[in-house]
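Quick one: structure for this chain?
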Amino acid sequence: MIVLPRNHLITSANSDVGKLTKRDIERILRQWVKEKPVVKSVRSFQIARQRVYQLINQYTRKGEYPVLRQSRRTSEPIDECEEALILETYQAHTVGPISFEKKIGETQGIYIPHNQIYRVLLNHGLVEINREKRQQR
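Got it. Here's what it folds into:
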């Protein structure tokens, strides 16, 4: 039996430790409703005792299972005039998005992020996805 320290998790105990899913939260709260000890949930899900009590408090206050937040920001839509400017400038200078960002800043005096430039060029088929750069480092 592996004893977990009070403040830290041991990843060697279970290598697939990750975030709690909606299903995990429901299972933890069902165990609590059945009056199972909190320590059992802490050990099986390898989370802090404080997190279990936090879920219980949210459940008792609202009367329903806690809802997880979206973990990422939504992307902003690309302005049509910026898209036209990107495509127009790309015809004159065929360079990568980072150099392209600097070139637009120098010539037009407008800042457009290179990720947004890349997205526009990708949507119009002017750039191909480089699979080597997409791999996890």
